[in-house]
Amino acid sequence: MKVKRILSALLCLIMLFGAVALTGCSADKNTDGEPTDSVSDTEKETEPPVERIPLVENGKAVYTVVYPNDASAAVLNAMNTFIEGIKKQTGVTLPSKSDNLRPGQVRDENAKEILFGKTNYDETQNILKELYDDEYVIRAVGSKIVIATTNDSYLKAATNYYLKNLVKKNLEGEEGSYTLWFEEYHFLAEGADKVTNINGKTIQSFAIIYETEREGYDVIASRLSDIISKYTGYKLPVYADTDRKEGECEILVGNTNRSLSGKCYKDFVDLLTYKIIIEGNKMQIVSGGPFSARSCVDGMGILFFAGEGKQFGDGTYSETNMKANVAAVSDDTDLRVMTANILTSWWGEDIDPSIPPVIQRAEIAAAMLTLYKPDVVGLQEADGVWQKAIADYAEILKNEYGIEYGALHSTYQNKVNLTCILYRADKLTVKSSGVEVTSYWNGGYHMRNITWAVFSDGEHEFMLANNHWAHESNEWKEESSEQLVNFIKNTTFDGPIFCTGDFNAKPTLTEEEISEGVFHAFENFVNKSEPRWLKEEAKSLGVLTKDMGACHTVGTPAYGGNYIDHIFGFGEFTVNKYEAVEGSSIHWMSDHSPHYCDVKF
Amino acid sequence: MKATFRTLAVLMCAVLLLSTFVSCGGGKDNNAESTPDSSAESKNDVVETDPEDTARYDANGYLMDDLPETYDWQKKDFTVYTWQEMAKWEWCEEMTENSGTVDLALYKRMQAIETRFNMNFVITTEKGNWDNRVNFVNKLYNNVSTNQSAYDLVGQYTQSAGGAATREIYFDLNEISYLDLEKPWWPSAISETATIGDKLYFATGDITPTLIRNVHCMYVNEDIYEAENIGDSFGKGRAMYDVVKDGDWTLELLMKMGIDTVSDAGDKVGITFANLVSADAFFYGAGFSLIDNDNGILSISDDLVSASLINVYDNVQKMYSGQYGDVKLEEDKSHSFKFKEGDSLFYAGTVADAQLLTEKGINFTILPMPMRDVDQEGGYKTVANFWVTYYSIPIDAPDTEFSGMIMEALASEAYRNVTDVIYYDVFSSRYMTGESAELLDIVSKSVVFDTGRMFPEYIGSIWSAFRNGVSGSDAWTTIYEKDSGNWSIKIDSLYTLLG
Predict the structure, then answer these.
(1) Looking at residue B178, what DSSP letter applies?
(2) What is the pLDDT of residues A489-541, one digit of tens each?
(3) Closest-CA residue in chain B for A111?
(4) DSSP assignment, residue A545?
């Protein structure tokens, strides 16, 4: 579980102090004094000054270590190890004291203090808000140096790493008069002190630059910084490509304004694909979209940074195609109808930050459309964020994949309609359509409706009625079920009708549910409307190729259990195939698997 | 030895307050409103540093010692023979997975001294509490009498100190090089009451944290106090904090508030006492002492024949002897006391109890011991129990300069870096906050010492006469008439032996 991150503050701090930590070739250091072509003199003048902070100076302690007054034994031991380790290497004992303000004492804001653990200082508390549960950081903030982690047990690791790796290299002078300089350090719990070089430059020499022209890459860049930190112990600074002049050592995420990015993105990159290209002191992450960029940086953790330290030179280090198993439409199929609950952002990342944001999941949805090419899709939980994100891919789908999709009834009565319909605009025409209000979510803002439309492919006409039934109570279950029963009963359309939806209704109830008196909405609808349950029909015909339940953990498929996504049919047609979509990426789109059915009229 | 010619004021001068160890952390603005502080050596005083003499003070304004800045004892072992029961509160040789703030402070003290003087501590422990005190002293005596020169310093249970001293195995600390008993880490009140003639055989002060923990005090359960409307009924609508701060906390008020006022629902009671030892605290809380120590000259205190003592004795006896149904004397050592279970309005225990009370979630306020009346001279008083470590240097110590230097350093270092950690960082902020922490300051400032408690083996029953009396049926006058003659003989004998 991530905690709120104050990125702006982090960036400021990293800008201020990151240079202290970095050695090598980042442009804003330019330690050898050689001019950088892309840097103007004016820009140079705006660079923050590099301040070196001595913890020990000429054999004397400069800083006092401050620990929480209620420190656990783990914290005290870690602090003691820290102090004794520095003493061993410098001969100087840093004094220590608790953060407790005794009567008459006032806090000296200018006092040079190392805040160890969860002290009650603002400097510590502010940084704690930025940290993941398993992170720690050693960072200078004004006159304080904060050594903090949300989990005290990692302070020992922080201390050990610091003493092992950061003291000796920052020590100057001779025995008896050592000066120890501070070096900033950011660590994730599984970190190991590996040495990773890219074309001879250590990883801590790099900055991460992300594309700003398209949305979603800032999050990926931060994620990459976290991952590198996790495996190497170094937290690389993250910059928008428009906010920072080009430096020598950069990791580029997305189609940034750097020349290497332009070269790598010259040709269209398929959705759900990525690769890593290294040229000189630039590493470029090339991806089909934010989700594949995310997959790339996740993979980089293992590819580049896990295990022993590695050396990388120019070249392409990874290329992947995360396409799901593609189900081609058979020649004798007239229509592919799909149902897909895509998990609203409100129920997704807004509640669980570990779920990829819609801007990432939309790449999966777009890829799914290019791969499966459904003719009509009954969407559920397509909130405004989703609708915008899908719309943003419309041009790519049209220009790069040759398919056009239109949306029907994205809103209704000036509110977002979560059960809108997608259809192949290059293949179908809409003869008529409408919405019937079924129920509301979220204070009336989100609507779950019966959204219907009659389509024509030139030879055949059919209706799609898309649903999302309520589940909150027996009364609502019955109401949802009855509304669809009545819709079917009252419609005047006499051609084939398909009902897609998240019905929140299983074909059979458990004994426990029966004993609890759970309303059997599925049975109510089936008994009263007598539809064709297409999955069951496909199963009997031997054309059910994949059957999966719903409500799995996002990212993890559910192979059984909660069968609540259905496609029903009425009228004359033949079922050629029924399948629940499965693929390594598709499970990251939602907590439901899309289902589709191929039919012939 | 009827000493009616001595005034109470003289007595109080002799029984000085212990403000120097525990009341002055930060040293800058401690209020002095609770009790008068007759010591001229508190941290309040020392932080007024002389600009030309700043080298003698640390960064926090605390006085430094006059020991050499460094001294090379060439890694020599410094062996301490100390009682096992309190060792964990005084020594921390290494930090472990269970170490806390106090351990860290004690660890740092050892590290600082070992570094400064290039020596090594060797801590040898032996059981030495009341039950084991004789064996503790005998082992030491056998060692010293055969000139083993095994120990550089001895740390002991209070009542062992006097016992060992009377066996003449300790140096007079006044004669030890490097020991500077004028320094604030050796409170003059203790030195003066422990001095016999012109000799001082044991001393305590900042050198041991036990003096902070083992001070008698009282506690009130604020939830019961509020639920039973005790403040409205007996405290003029005030909280206990205000009652204490207004100087109205007396034995009479304790009995009014605590006896027959608490409903017995849930088996609650009015007053509980941790054990019989706590009766001593009512004696000292009422401003009495056993022995007058006038520059080393000893005599039985006039207090023992005063009408006010008889009155206090009678009231405490009524409480301790079980005359009241909801006043309980609890000798249970299982820590299942009613107050600690939230079932008692008042409780007489020690400062150390605050830790367990906090851990048990009791909503309490610490209180000083009640005065005998609102006009009691000097205000609130209390006493430390016997679980305080006193330090001595055995006469066969290998090198008295080594012993003196390190003993001085232990106290000096603790004065600056241990006492305040325990007092402020642990007790007055972790276990008590706000008003309770303020009252802890009053409790700590109110500690007195009494020569009569330091030589129990030698001077007979005087030290326990009050506590034993209140638990029985004898009147105080009966006890005094029966035993005072023997007490006088013993006191004279003590002076002859050690003075």
Answers:
(1) T
(2) 999 999 999 999 999 999 999 888 898 899 999 999 999 999 999 999 999 99
(3) B59
(4) E
CA pair distance A129, A545, nearest whole angstrom: 48
| CB-CB contact of A384 with A414 (8 Å) | no
The answer to whether B231 contacts chain A (CB < 8 Å) is: no
Asked if pLDDT for residue B45 goes beyond 80, the answer is no
Residue A267: other Cβ atoms inside 10 A: 8
DSSP A116-175: ESS-SSHHHHHHHTT--TTEEEEEEETTEEEEEESSTTHHHHHHHHIIIIISGGGEES-T
Is the separation of the CB atoms in A580 and A547 below 8 Å? Answer: yes
Q: Enumerate the residues of chain B whose CB falls inside 8 A of the CB of residue A77.
A: 95-97, 99
For A105, name the nearest residue in chain B, comparing CA atoms only: B26
Contact A11, A238 (CB under 8 A): yes
Closest partner residue to B429 (CB to CB) among A76, A96, A100 is: A100
Give the per-residue pLDDT at B234. Answer: 93
- B26·A74 Cβ contact <8 A: no
pTM here? 0.57
B100 phi, psi to nearest 5 deg: -120, -170
Q: pLDDT, tens digit, for every residue of A30-48? A: 333 333 333 333 333 344 4
Least Cα distance to A342 among A390, A394, A391, A379 occurs for: A379
Tokens 């508190």 correspond to what residue?
B42
- What letter would DSSP give residue B231? H
* Residue pLDDT, tens place only, A385-421: 999 999 999 999 999 999 999 999 998 887 889 999 9
Tokens read off for B273: 């006492």
Out of B97, B420, B430, name the one closest to residue A70 (CB).
Answer: B430
Percent of chain B with pLDDT over 90: 59
Q: What span, in angstroms and rounded, lies between the C-alpha atoms of A194 and A382?
A: 44
Inter-chain CB proximity B101 and A98 less than 8 Å: yes
d(CA B479, CA A441): 85
Burial of A331 (0-12, 13-18, 19+ CB in 10 A): exposed
Least Cα separation, residue B72 to chain A (angstroms) = 17
Which of B27, B104, B424 is the closest to A76 by Cβ?
A: B104
Alpha-carbon distance A325 to nearest alpha carbon in chain B (angstroms): 53
Measure the CA–CA gap between A68 and A98, rounded to whole angstroms: 6
The answer to whether B26 contacts A69, with C-beta atoms less than 8 Å apart, is no
Nearest by CB to residue A69, choosing from B30, B101, B107, is B101
**Residues of chain A contacting B, Cβ within 8 Å:** 67, 69-71, 73-74, 76-77, 79-80, 93, 96, 98, 100, 102-105
Count of A–B CB contacts within 8 Å? 58
3-state secondary structure A295-312: HHHHHHHHHHHCCCCCEE
A104: nearest CB among B28, B100, B103:
B28
Euclidean distance between CA atoms A155 and B102, whole angstroms: 20
- Stretches in chain A below the pLDDT threshold 50: 1-49, 189-193
